[in-house]
From TrEMBL:
GO terms for molecular function: transferase activity. The keyword Oxidoreductase does not apply. Keywords: Transferase. Pfam families: TsaD (PF00814). Residues 33-148 form the Gcp-like domain. This is tRNA (Adenosine(37)-N6)-threonylcarbamoyltransferase complex dimerization subunit type 1 TsaB. One of its GO terms (cellular component) is cytosol. It comes from the Bacteria. The gene is tsaB.
Length: 229
């Protein structure tokens, strides 16, 4: 099964192509606010690097968030359009899971933290048991202090990854010697493919929906303006 992976839930835009044998091509670039402009050209480049035609894709995996609302919508809309156009199923991958999936060689807690802006983060805790990545918490939106408190309930030892972890590194590092900062900033498109392949949870394109965790900023601003009028 040839899988096209799409990652647009962060400031990164990524495309990967993989099969049961492993990854064939992967392209990840950090280009804030250019998701809509770059995604289809990157998909075309990915297919060219993989030596395949887009029509050969058997399934599309997409990062559904949480993350940047506009980027999420671009990725999901593209995945749905490709799924319908190619007649193939789509798999939803949570950004925090894709981020944690890349962390290997860690026995303790993995804290996936994505910058939610406005002083908030999107986060979840995971732990590896053998080759399996298991969630310890549900994805949530909150302050970085919420993450620190949750880590404390799971022994206080953790590796924190993601752009949110790097933005709030001082708060995390000062929380105690058991909390370390990993190098990863963003979930990779390769991880999106790998998570989708292992989960094997394919659905019709219309069933895919974004994981917001809070109302989109545009809706909040609209409600605020209406309340002030």
């Amino acid at each position: 099964m040839l899988i096209l992976g799409i990652e647009t839930a962060t400031t990164q835009v990524g495309v990967a192509i993989g099969s049961a044998e492993g990854l064939i091509a992967t392209i990840d670039v950090v280009k804030p606010r250019r998701h809509a402009e770059l995604l289809m050209p990157l998909i075309e480049d990915g297919c060219r690097h993989a030596g395949i035609e887009l029509s050969e894709i058997d399934g599309v995996a997409v990062d559904i968030g949480p993350g940047l609302f506009t980027g999420m919508r671009v990725g999901i809309a593209t995945a749905q359009a490709l799924g319908v156009g190619l007649g193939v199923p789509v798999a939803s991958v949570v950004s925090l899971t894709a981020l944690a999936h890349t962390v290997i060689g860690v026995d303790g807690v993995i804290a996936s933290i994505i910058d939610g802006r406005k002083g908030e983060v999107f986060w979840a805790l995971y732990q590896r048991r053998g080759d399996e990545l298991q969630p310890l918490t549900e994805p949530a939106a909150g302050r970085v202090t919420d993450v620190v408190a949750a880590i404390g309930t799971h022994g206080g030892q953790a590796v924190a990854v993601g752009d949110g972890a790097h933005r709030y590194r001082d708060e995390l590092v000062s929380a105690g010697p058991g909390l370390m900062l990993g190098d990863l900033w963003y979930p990779s498109s390769a991880a999106v493919v790998e998570v989708a392949r292992s989960a094997d949870a394919w659905v019709a394109p219309v069933e895919v929906a974004p994981l917001y965790l809070r109302r989109p900023d545009a809706e909040i601003n609209w409600a605020t303006r209406r309340g002030a009028s």
